Amino acid sequence: MPHADIYSLTPLADEVPSGLPLVMAMTGFADAGTTSGQLIEFIRGDRQSRTVAAFDNDTFLDYRARRPSVLFDQDDFRDYTAPRLELALADDEMGQPFLALIGYEPDLAWEAFTDAVMDLVERFRVSGASWVQGVPMPVPHTRALGVVVTGTRGELVDRLSAWRTTMRVQATPLHRLHGAIRDTGRPVSGFAVLVPHYLAETEYPEALVTAIDGLGAAEGLILPTDTLRDAGRRFVSKVQEQIDGNDELQRLIATLEERYDSELGDATARSPLTDGAGELPSADEIAAELERFLSGRGDEQGGRGLA
C-alpha cells in the first residue's frame, strides 16, 4: 500500500529539524489511569503541538468500534468530530523541539502503519524514541507509582524499572514500532506505568507525571509537571477521604500495601504482587468493594471516577 494513500504531510513537514526524538502514545488498549489520553491532551494542549503528518482514518479506524461524536443541537446535528492519529511537532519547556506520534491506536493495517511510521522516522532522521502506556495492577495508591521500563537503554531499565519478568502479552502497534525502531539501531524505550487497578478508569494525574518523568529521562525533554503534581495531590486526597470513612476499604488497601511491600523486593525475579504460583490476584477478589464504592462516588460527583 503506497504511503501517500495512508498519510498526508502538512507544509510544516518541510520545517521539521533533522534528528529530533520521537514520543509515542496511543489510546485504545490498556490506557489505565488515562495515561496515554492525558499525555496526548498534554502535548496537543499544553505544548500546543502542530500536525506534521495526518494518518487516514478510513485506512486505520474501525468506525463501528470507536464511533466519532456529533453534537445534537436542538433540531440539528453539527460539529462532527473524528478521531485523530498524527505525527506532530511540539516543544518542551526549554524550547527543544520533539516529534510526537499521538492519537488512537490503529484498529487495522498494523503492518502498513508500521511501514509508514518508519518511513517518517527515516525522513526526519529521528534520533531515538520512547512510548508510554498505563497498565492496571493490584497496587495501592498509597505507594509511589511503579513503571516497567523496556528497550535498549539498559541504564534506564536498571535504574527505573520496577520489575523484570518473562511472559507473553497481547501486542499493540507500539510494541511493533518498538521492535522496528530498535532494529534500525536507534535507542528506544517503553514505559508501562503501573496504575492501581481500582483507579484504572479515572484520569489519574500521577500516572501522567510518571510517564513524563520517564520521557524526560529517556529523551532529555524538560516538561512542566508542577501543576500536574498539585492535581495529583488533590486527587489522592479525595480518594483517601473516601477510604478513611470505610473500615472495609481500609482493610483492602492495607492488604494491597502489605503485598506490595513484601513482594517488590523480589522485583527482578518475578512480577510484584504475584502469588507463589506466579499468578496475579484477581481485582474482584482483592478490591471489588473498593471499585464499586469509588465508581459510585464518581457517579454522584458527575464526573469520570474521581478526576
Automatic annotation (TrEMBL):
SUPFAM superfamilies: Cgl1923-like (SSF159659). Keywords: Coiled coil. The keyword Coiled coil applies. The keyword Coiled coil applies. Signal peptide: none annotated. Pfam families: PAC2. Residues 239-266 form a coiled coil. This is PAC2 family protein. It comes from the Bacteria. InterPro entries: Proteasome_assmbl_chaperone_2, PSMG2_sf, Rv2714-like.
